[in-house]
Amino acid sequence: MKKVNIIGVPEHFNHPWHLAIEENAFKDRGIDLEWIDIPEGTGRMCQMLADNETDIAIILTEGLVKSITAGTKAKIVQEYIASPLLWGIHVSAKSSYNSIADLKNTKAAISRFGSGSHLMAYVNAQILGWNTAELEFEVINNLDGAVTSLTEGTADYFMWEHFTTKPLVDNGTFKCIGDCPTPWPCFVIAATEKFITENSGTLQHILEIINLYSEEFKSIPSIDRTVANRYKQKLDDIKKWLSITQWSQSQMSEKTLKKVQDTLLSLDLIDKKLDTKSILL
Predict the structure, then answer these.
(1) What percent of the chain has pLDDT over 90?
(2) 3-state secondary structure of 234
(3) pTM higher than 0.90 for the full model?
(4) What backbone phi and psi angles, to 5 degrees, belong to 58?
(5) Are 40 and 46 in contact (CB under 8 A)?
(6) 109 touches 158 (CB < 8 A)
(7) Which of 88, 95, 159, 264 gets the most CB atoms within 10 Å of its CB?
(8) Whole-number Å distance between alpha carbons of 146 and 90
């Protein structure tokens, strides 16, 4: 049995992986795939890829591209979610901020530098015409840290996946004052160069299995109820999420990668663009 480590956020996007693991789809191919949840998100996962603490990661596109540009020895082996990620822009429920425009010159809570919450704060600011050089950040590690930070006022707003954060809006902890979708497909499957080089056959088996599960995911009977129960979400929210989410079974296009790199470069989040072969498998 080939042992493979895989990491991802504990969110509904990754439910196809859990289904496949629970149904022994990988073990049937001789693969012991061990999933580890990383609630800190993409910044932490990039570090784990860089340190070879994992073999594979389900990770945000922009964060991984930035990390690879900075020297992380990993590649995008396939697109995972073809649709954008809907980033909710959240403030404390008791905050006086009521629109995204109110947040100009305020401080953003981020899980860590290089994370999606960090990079998307720049994208959001660029869309709004703010001076991105003046953005301020408070590192809060994870969603629990964001609750503490916004409640105590050490940061003013927090960007996180809309539906994951929705229960905190429903219970009166946060107020969602807007959304900012990523300008590109949001999640990719990444692997370290070491794993790719040494386990190309195993990697191919893993992709074949997850692509089968993700392709059929929406057609599973009562999948909306299953996901709502597992991730403690309202059924209507999961139905909406499913309606706007599209899984991918193919590699990212060069055009999409160019858009990601061009955007990061324009925001001074990377200092150079890499050729396609340095990022895509």
Answers:
(1) 97
(2) coil
(3) yes
(4) -100, 110
(5) no
(6) yes
(7) 159
(8) 10
What are the pLDDT digits (tens) for 103-137?
Answer: 999 999 999 998 899 999 999 999 999 999 999 99
Q: For residue 154, what pLDDT is reported?
A: 97
Host H or E run for residue 260? helix 254-266
Q: Cα separation of 21 and 25, whole Å? A: 6
**Alpha carbons 26 and 5: distance in angstroms, whole number:** 12
What tokens were used for 119?
A: 């990079």
Residue 269 sits at φ, ψ, to 5 deg, of -90, -20
- pLDDT tens per residue, range 67-79: 999 999 999 999 9
Rounded CA-CA distance 281/135 in Å is 34
How confident is residue 233, by pLDDT bands cut at 50, 70 and 90? very high
When pLDDT is averaged across residues 161-186 and rounded to a whole number, the result is: 95
d(CA 55, CA 32): 12
Average pLDDT on 145-156 reads 96
CA distance 121 to 52: 28
User: DSSP string covering 28-97, please?
Assistant: GGTEEEEEEE-TT-HHHHHHHHHTTS-SEEEEEHHHHHHHHHTT--EEEEEEEE-SPPEEEEEEETT-S-
Strands (E), 111-249: 136-139, 157-161, 174-181, 187-192
Beta-carbon contacts of 89 under 8 Å, excluding residues fewer than 6 positions away, are 100, 103, 124, 157, 158, 159, 176, 177, 178, 179, 180
